[in-house]
């Protein structure tokens, strides 16, 4: 019995403990539920705050944000309502998404949305959207899949890119068009020509490249000003465009240079009629601001594939032909030919050899005596640069200096001449051949170089020559190319004691003002005047020479007459007070050794004394 | 092991043997819980092994037999406590197949900390199924009892071929079930 009671008592005890354990678990579970509920509440609060922040961001976003669910717009932020011109009668909400998409893009948009719903990554595209008033505009759209109110939806961020597109178009236009004339620019012309050549190559078609340069355009610019020059270029462009076929391409290559690319048919040859019409269209007077301007042009034509295989080659050939047309008297057309090619080859050969000209020991100087008409003695010499080219033979400065001027090699060449001439004159003095003066011609490119003064100083120092025995000869054209800079450089040189002569006086665009303002020491009368002298002293040519001499003297300048070939010319000049002469009558330019013999022989005194 | 299993075990011993037998085996065992089980609690499975072992000693019934018996009893109790899991299925195969995915998912919803065994299966033919039991505890006998209880519930006739695979701890057992009546039909 006791055993049964014990069992019962233990059973009751176990039941009590089980109940207590159950209560403990219940209590624990209650706490857990309370904690979870608190956490959920705080999560919901955070979520609500986050949603509020999101709503604010979306609402304040400068980009239009829209959500479309089941194809219809379910949400549009303020920027979207503004962008699509929402008003009281037309609202975005509820509209089919395609109603704000341009017809052309509707299938693309539908497809994009379908792929997004299938799980594709967010997309980005540029499309044309429609405002609620139906007006189209260019947009950049980013689309992503979202759930909106529990349903699959597409969120879109739309940005108006009309302005950007407009700017891009403008930039693209500016990159390919000449801003003044609106025609193609150099880059676009080059690209067009390259493409045309590929096409021509595939179909065996001829292509002609015409290089057109206006004649004397610079004078019009100088005389009437740049606005008139610009207007003239615009008119020329219009006239050329009218003459050309729509398959031809006109481009402004730079300045007053135009290039025309013409595609031909297999049997076609370049029509001289077309060239004539191009030229005569330009020749017609152009009326600008009440001025009737006349301008001509020179045209060079190169043919593909004969005159060049690439755009570069063809343009170079056409340019060379145009240059030849200019040389031949302007206002004409020149087709590229073998002569021009030979000339180009010669030029290329000169260009190559110029690169290391000073290492080649091929340059040398000839000296032409200048004789005083007062004493009959040699007063100085003009140093004349020569080049003994191994293949092309003897070259005069006219043939290679303009090429050297296009590169920086002109500066070391110039320095070499100054130094060499100074050393030579000093050497003659040391050998007892007198204190002669040497005249050195300066290149147009050298004058503005800041190093000219130091080059001169260095040459004087190394030779020991005093500055007044060096005379730098400059042409009028050169002097006037940049008056302010020219004056500054010449005054610097003059201050060092160097003499400055104006060369070929009377042939360029002389302005007497420059004679007054430039620090000149002498004036070299051009040989044209000397050679026009006549026995009839009343002739205009004689009077001009007399006047020039008087003019120079009144400005306290020494006068040197160039190109004296006859004794009558010599006598006329001496009689009229010319100071010095130079010319074949006395001596051709000769090498240094021969020149020293001339000095030793005093061979001119008999003429001068007579 | 969930307290409900202990409660069912204690109830079974009390009903089928006696309250004294319950008291005896609890007294004989060293139980942290003191044998006071509540259905929502969780207790070391070792306590179940101790209780079964002492019951075996006292009844002289081998432990595997006791566990299989408890398994059959337990299945019967499930049909009473959770008929919703049972009644929606038409056959033992059907019910056994959804054990892993459905029943154990529901178990975890109720008892997050429950350590449930895994049940896998392969259909060998229309009337043969390979049922694979894996557990961290060596309770293949209990599992067999549950399977038998299930077959019994649906009134089916099957042969059960059991293959205990070697494992370091726990159990990995394959039961090949063959529905004989189905084959004859």
How is this structure best described in words?
The complex is a heterodimer of chains A (610) and B (185). Chain A is α/β, with parallel strands linked by helices and 610 residues long. Chain A has four domains: 1-60; 61-164, PAS domain (Beta-Lactamase), CATH 3.30.450; 177-336, Reverse transcriptase/Diguanylate cyclase domain (Alpha-Beta Plaits); 349-609, EAL domain (TIM Barrel, Alpha-Beta Barrel). In chain A, 49% of the residues lie in helices and 22% in strands. Chain A is built from 22 helices and 22 strands. In chain A, the strands form four sheets. An eight-stranded mixed barrel of chain A has the order 13-14-16-17-18-19-20-21, surrounded by four helices. In chain A, strand 18, helix 17 (512-517) and strand 19 form a beta-alpha-beta unit. In chain A, helix 7 runs antiparallel to helix 8 and helix 13 packs parallel to helix 14 (452-463). The longest helix of chain A is centred in the N-terminal third of the chain and has 59 residues, at 2-60. Chain A is elongated. Chain A starts with a helix and ends with a helix. With 185 residues, chain B is α+β, with helices and mostly antiparallel strands. Chain B folds into two domains: 3-61; 69-184, H-NOX domain. Chain B contains nine helices and four strands; from the N terminus they run αααααααββαββα. A four-stranded antiparallel β-sheet of chain B has the order 1-2-4-3. In chain B, strand 3 and strand 4 (171-179) form a beta hairpin. In chain B, helix 1 packs across helix 2 and helix 2 (19-28) packs across helix 3 (45-59). Chain B is globular. The chains are: A alpha/beta (610), B alpha+beta (185). Chains A and B meet through helix 1 of A and helix 2 of B.
